[in-house]
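Q&A log
Question type: sequence-to-structure
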Amino acid sequence: MMGLIPILALSLALSAYLMFSQIHELRNLMTERAKTSSEQLAILAEHVISDGHADILDRITTTALEETAVKAIAIYSADMQLITQAGPKSSLSLIPIRPGEQNTRHQILNDGLLILQPIISHSLSPQTASPVIGWVAMQFDWRHLKIHQYQTLFVGTVFLVIAFIMCVSLTSYINQSLATDLATLRQTIQKMASRTRNFHAHIPENDEFNEIAEELNQLNNAHQLELQELQRSIEQTNIDLRETLETVEVQNIELDLARREALNASRIKSEFLANTSHEIRTPLSGIIGFSKILLKSELEQRQREAIETIHNSANSLLTIINDILDFSKLEAGKLVLDNAPVNLREVVEDTMQLLAPSANEKELELVLLIQAGTPETVLTDGLRLKQILTNLVNNAIKFTPAGHIKITILSGDVKGNEANITIQVSDTGIGLSKEQQQGIFKDFSQADASITRQYGGTGLGLVIVKGIIEQMGGEIGIVSEPGRGATFWFTLKLPINSNAIKLRDFSQLKNKSLSLYDRSEIHSQAITSLLLSWGIEVQHCTHISDIKPADYYIICCDNTAELPSLLETLNRSAVIITPYNKQQCDSEERIYLSKPFSHIKLFDALSKGLQCSPSPQLINFSNANILAVDDNPSNLHILGNFLADMAVHAHFAQNGAEALQQCREKRFDLIFMDIQMPHMDGIETSRRIRKDGLNISTPIIALSAYLSPDNPAQLRDAGINDYFSKPISEAQLSSLLSEYLKFAPIATSIECPRPVDINECLQLTKGRSQLAADMLNMLLDDLPLQKKNLVDAFQNNDLVEIAALNHLLKGACCYTGTPLLKKCVLELEQQLEQVESCEKQFSAVVYAIDDLIAWRDEHDLNVVFDL
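Response status: OK
Response body:
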């Protein structure tokens, strides 16, 4: 096409040029011929007009009409009067003539040419201007000219077609020749690609394609030689490979046998470590528990020192065992993660309060900073998150001689319902060099061998932390310089729990003012950040004299010796925050909190008014009934002593069957359940307790010698509310009881409604004793069945049925003097109308029914109503 198109374009252009040039020349020639004819006729007409022979003019015009292309002739006088005419009358017979004009005029028509030629007399003298004696008008027809044009166009078109056919034919021939040669070369290459051996490419013409074909033949020959050599090499390699595979197969069999033995050994080792850990932690729990009990008794100085040494040594041994057990679980890949709602601030505060005694011994300050916009509650394994924080903060305390430890929680980009949470633990300790940082996360390693001798430890803490974080899908790192402290950070991608139940409405303190006295810059920054998140306007000062009037006052004091003078200067109600375990209580207008403080306690102190709060050692839970289930008598004995110190009524069961029997006979406020027990373990026992009996909604706390549950979801499915590993300390026990017994009946000076009010019964029946007794007896007889129906409806989450049964009880209470049941029924009805959780009110109704049944068993209605 590249050769054909230019030639055709040139031929077309040349043909067009020649045809139009010829047509133009032919038109000009015809025009000149027409002018000549008109001039000759004008000359002839001059003499005839001068002689006055009009008949001769007729013959002349008639004769001239016979000339080719002449269509019409007319002769006019000088004043344009027609003298004679031959042929049809011209459509342009008159052309405007200006006076005195003597030039030839012509006009081109659509189908011809019109010429107006003046007839000039030449008989006058030369000096006199020749006068115009007439005009000759001739009209010419171009039909014969069009014939010539068509002939020219036809000849040009024929020439162009012939040229096109010749070009196409020649190009087709060339293309066909090239295609044949290229097809031959393509087939040759395909044969080479398909590894066809015996072939020879040949092109008849002796041109470049023939040379290419010969080169391809040579290439094929060389390729065949290489293939033969490669085939020989492959055959030899196959022989060698077969021998190698036979050797590898034997080795694989040996390795598989060794792997099975190793896996079996690892399984046995893991089971051994787990069982050994359980068996070791059980007697250690007894050692730590009984040493704690002995430390409370009157002892000589040497005895106290010896018991304290036993207590501390047992705790150290317990820490080592916990690390080894966690490491073995990570190594075996058997660490199971839970996924439950976790409040980030509460987890960090619990960790800080747990490690506060260690930090207080070194006078270190523990502070928590949370970035604004960080989600409050996320879905994760709270136990493992607390374990990570405990290890990192404990390390920071261990390697920080003075200063502070700061925990910072940051929130990255929130995508959908997930947030990138980054937690940093920074200290002002000894720091780490670049070389030390490289090996700090390796097994059984510490930054320096002398560290083990100076600070102790197994070197597994950070390894366990790294393993847990990686299993949770996060990463951990460190930023540090020698002598400038260290910052451990880890990042987790956690789902946000937007449906978390808020125990406090922190917006109640919005727009309130608060004056804060705190000399510590970092601690004041932490508490100010917390208060600002509640919407409180904070005025911070470092001198007590600068404190300004406000709605609330907070005094943070590290030196308790100067506290009296500060309070005397302030002379106002205030929240006093002092170092750990140095609380005081000197007036009803002040509440004392210890560093690190709980934000819940601080909020309660500010929102509910300032009042003296007893120290944790004085908290008791009188009237609380707790069931402890454990197959180890020593564990029951230790737990019984701890509970007795807190004025708790403790009941004991040594197996699941005893626990089920007691749960059918008595309602408890809390149940401690051992997991591993013979015949019926704690999980199965808890599951059966939840099915029927008086303790369907009683909180159950699992206590086990294992560090963590193998399957947290299994515990939740069985109805277990929380999990603690043995040994449990008094502080943990006190915190646990405070959390789960906050709605339990305790000794108080407020008079509670009685189960039965005889005077009210008589008033409702207008003093008729028999009717009052009958109405009350009808209610008491129906209570067991109504209680069973209520419990069944609650277990099925049938709020409609609960409302109906509660309405029946409400109607019965209107005609009987049962103030306690009436109060509880009305509270449950109100809660059901608000469509909120009614577990607390439902439990109160069940308790009131139990009290009425117990009252019935202890009283005779005939005697009570004097019948």
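Response note: The chain has 24 helices and 22 strands.
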